[in-house]
Write a structure and sequence with these properties.
The complex is a heterodimer of chains A (about 270) and B (about 250).
Chain A lengths: L1 E10 L2 E11 L4 E5 L6 H9 L4 E15 L16 E7 L5 H7 L1 E4 L6 E5 H15 L7 H14 L4 H5 L1 E2 L5 H15 L3 E5 L7 H15 L5 E5 L3 H6 L4 E6 L2 E6 L1 H16 L1
Parallel strand pairs in A: 3-10, 3-11, 6-9, 9-10
Antiparallel strand pairs in A: 1-2, 1-4, 4-5, 7-8, 11-12
Helix pairs in contact in A: 2-3, 4-6, 6-7
Chain B lengths: L16 H7 L7 E5 L4 E6 L4 E3 L2 E10 L4 E9 L3 E10 L4 E10 L4 E10 L5 E10 L4 E10 L6 E11 L5 E10 L4 E10 L3 H8 L5 H17 L4 H18 L1
Parallel strand pairs in B: 1-4, 2-5, 4-6, 5-7, 6-8, 7-9, 8-10, 9-11, 10-12, 11-13
Antiparallel strand pairs in B: 3-4
Classes of the chains: A alpha/beta (about 270), B alpha/beta (about 250).
Chain lengths: ~270, ~250
């Protein structure tokens, strides 16, 4: 699904990513751990296409199964291969909103407040903008509200909060939960979640963990989890754990690597 | 008719006096509005009346009698030089509400100039002005609040925010307080900023194209000026503002 090869990227004049390679297949959950300043958030932002994050070398390709012909959304079933074909995109050649429409969701470490724009309006416009790029019909107001209610329920978020301005007056935990509601509504192929677990209390962590599993743990989807803590990985079991240090992946293993890191620290394990 | 103002007249220092000079004799005298004691009145200016030569002007002289309320919503846009003059005199316990938007582009110059006189005690006034300026446009808000000596327990607020879409645009914000009473609340805030780039990227990451993201943010920004309007008024004036915004951004 995602193939990163020798990725090098600068933020401003500082090189942060130094030849990072990583392959994520459909159905997999990958965790990236690493010390502060290793380049974890830079990786997330670079994949999302944030301005000022300049790729100087390397490539990122994104392959998903798409409809061969535009068809009615109701009759389309991604689990069958009929009428579908693989499409590989050069991610670095695309604008941020095009990456989103292609199926990439970026969960922010610090979700941004947008005064005056309601969550529901924001999400409906976002979803319909994506659908338009994909040649799908826009969702009606009623269809959208039904979808939003379902996903808000999954994350135990009050619909009243979705009527409020995006993230304005939300606590840190509420913002993170809102990210997951957004992910549920947008239903991406690949979720890149940048420290979604930070700032969550134990109950909220469980709700978010369950949310990630039920939304993204599917054969045609994949997740890249950026985290500092084992706790989230107890809830969302990764297939692979990578250690990121000095802008590249220095070690890869299974879930046991996270436990090893928790016990011995980055310096001992990644040395 | 008075003589043509000069740059030395504080209330006219940002005016396009060159354009004004040719039409000055056609500028009508201020419209007198009186809101009778205890009554409520609402007015809106969706289009500033054009005088000629690219100049449009509205000039209101409002007296709000004791316990009365006057609600005014204005839109300054779509002319080369546009000016809305609002002089308000408040009676005891009365209220003046102003919501205004200034939308400028090219080398337009648009201004809202208010003089709010709290002549009697216990009156309240609230002024909210939002400007969105692109190109080499200039948007000006000058708001003088005068609180007379016996106008105790006055509560006057001004919130003025400007958004520059281009670095070549200019926003002038000049709130001014003249207070002769000692038991008053006068709050004023003025900011000049640009579209929040973080928010634009956040919106893009959810699939919104840059034009839509910008439109949503600007819509929310100028929306502040019209929240105090009745639903039908809001729909009309905000609708018009949004059409102008689309062309602007």
């Amino acid at each position: 699904m995602l193939k990163i090869e020798n990725l090098q990227a600068n933020v401003g004049v500082t090189q942060i990513l130094n030849g990072l390679s990583l392959t994520i297949n459909a159905g997999e959950i990958h965790a990236i751990m690493g010390p502060n300043g290793a380049g974890k958030s830079t990786l997330a932002y670079t994949l999302g296409g944030r301005p000022n994050y300049e790729v100087t070398d390397g490539s990122v390709s994104f392959t998903t199964s798409v409809r061969a012909e535009p068809v009615d959304a109701q009759t389309d079933d991604p689990s069958t291969s009929s009428g579908r074909t693989d499409q590989t995109l050069d991610l670095l050649d695309m604008d941020p909103h095009e990456r989103a429409a292609a199926g990439i969701f970026l969960g922010f470490q610090y979700p941004v407040e947008i005064p005056g724009v309601s969550n529901l309006q924001f999400l409906r416009e976002s979803l319909n903008a994506q659908r338009k790029v994909r040649g799908e019909d826009p969702l009606s107001g009623a269809e959208f509200i039904k979808l939003a209610k379902e996903k808000a329920g999954l994350l135990k978020m009050d619909m009243e909060m979705l009527k409020r301005a995006v993230n304005v007056g939300f606590s840190g935990g509420e913002k993170k939960r809102n990210e997951m509601v957004q992910m549920g509504i947008i239903d991406p192929k690949l979720a890149i979640l940048d420290e979604t677990d930070s700032g969550l209390d134990i109950d909220a962590l469980r709700i978010v963990g369950d949310g990630i599993n039920s939304i993204m743990r599917k054969p045609d989807k994949a997740v890249l989890l950026i985290t500092h803590y084992q706790r989230l990985l107890d809830l969302v079991k990764p297939d692979f754990v990578h250690v990121l240090a000095n802008g590249k992946i220095v070690k890869t293993g299974g879930p046991e690597l996270a436990l090893e890191l928790e016990e011995h620290g980055y310096e001992a394990v990644a040395a | 008719m008075n003589a043509l103002p000069t740059k030395g007249d504080e209330a006219w220092r940002y005016a396009d006096l060159k354009l004004l000079a040719d039409v000055w004799q056609d500028v009508p005298s201020p419209e007198q509005i009186t809101v009778k004691a205890g009554e409520s009145m609402a007015r809106q200016i969706c289009e500033i009346p054009v005088i000629g030569n690219g100049v449009a002007m509205a000039d209101l002289d409002i007296v709000i009698e004791d316990g009365a309320t006057f609600t005014l919503h204005v839109l300054a846009a779509a002319v080369q030089y546009g000016r809305i003059n609002i002089k308000t005199t408040l009676g005891k316990g009365s209220h003046f509400e102003l919501g205004g938007a200034i939308l400028g582009n090219g080398d337009q110059s648009l201004e809202i100039v208010t003089e709010t006189i709290h002549a009697k005690p216990e009156a309240t006034s609230n002024q909210v002005v939002r400007s969105v300026l692109g190109g080499k446009a200039t948007g000006t808000f000058m708001g003088k609040v005068h609180v007379a000596r016996d106008a105790q327990r006055t509560d006057a607020a001004q919130s003025v925010k400007s958004m520059l879409l281009d670095r070549s645009a200019t926003a002038n914000s000049k709130p001014e307080l003249e207070i002769f009473a000692d038991d008053v609340l006068c709050a004023h805030g003025a900011t000049v900023g640009e579209l929040d780039k973080e928010a634009l990227f956040y919106m893009a990451s959810r699939g919104l194209d840059p034009e839509t993201a910008k439109r949503l943010m600007l819509q929310a920004f100028i929306g502040d000026a019209f929240v105090s309007a009745a639903d039908d008024v809001r729909e009309a004036i905000e609708g018009k503002a949004l059409t102008i915004l689309e062309a602007l951004s």
